[in-house]
Design a protein that fits this description.
Order of helices and strands: HHHHHEEHH
Distance between the termini: 27 Å
Largest sheet: 2 strands, antiparallel
CATH superfamily: uncharacterized protein sp1917 domain
Number of helices: 7
Structural class: mainly alpha
InterPro entries: SP1917_dom_sf, UCP033199
Number of strands: 2
Pfam families: DUF2200
CATH architecture: Orthogonal Bundle
Number of domains: 1
CATH topology: Helicase, Ruva Protein, domain 3
Radius of gyration: 13 Å
Helix content: 55-70%
Strand order of the largest sheet: 1-2
Protein name: DUF2200 domain-containing protein
């Protein structure tokens, strides 16, 4: 699925710190916890809570965030539509990774079982 260069650039330059509070609010509003959110983020990126806080404090962009991440080998199993885009068809690698994270947060907020979110077979 095609995204525009402008959209991809906007995603790359957005800071993780600016989006993180929205992730927390979204999952907590639906009865999930910040700890569960951190578990999901760690599964995708390899960042533990301490590393995550450091990235938030440094106000890194999503580009830097995902450059530093060790993407889970099963991330390609994340499929579905988020923000009008089918994640498995997004051509820009960085935009796809950001949407992977959005999709996992969305699944957590919708009450999906953790083992399914973390793509455990």
């Amino acid at each position: 699925m095609k995204t525009t260069p402008k959209h991809d650039e906007r995603m790359a330059n957005m800071t993780f710190a600016s989006v993180y509070p929205h992730y927390v609010a979204k999952v907590e509003k639906k009865g999930r916890t910040k700890e569960e959110l951190h578990q999901v983020i760690e599964w995708l990126t390899g960042f533990d809570e301490k590393q995550l806080q450091k990235l938030i404090d440094e106000k890194v962009t999503f580009e830097t965030f995902f450059e530093k991440a060790k993407l889970n080998l099963n991330a390609h199993l994340i499929k579905g539509v988020i923000c009008g885009y089918r994640v498995e068809e997004i051509e820009n690698p960085l935009t796809q990774k950001v949407r992977y994270l959005d999709k996992l947060v969305d699944e957590l907020a919708k009450g999906k079982a953790m083992e399914k979110i973390l793509r455990k077979k």
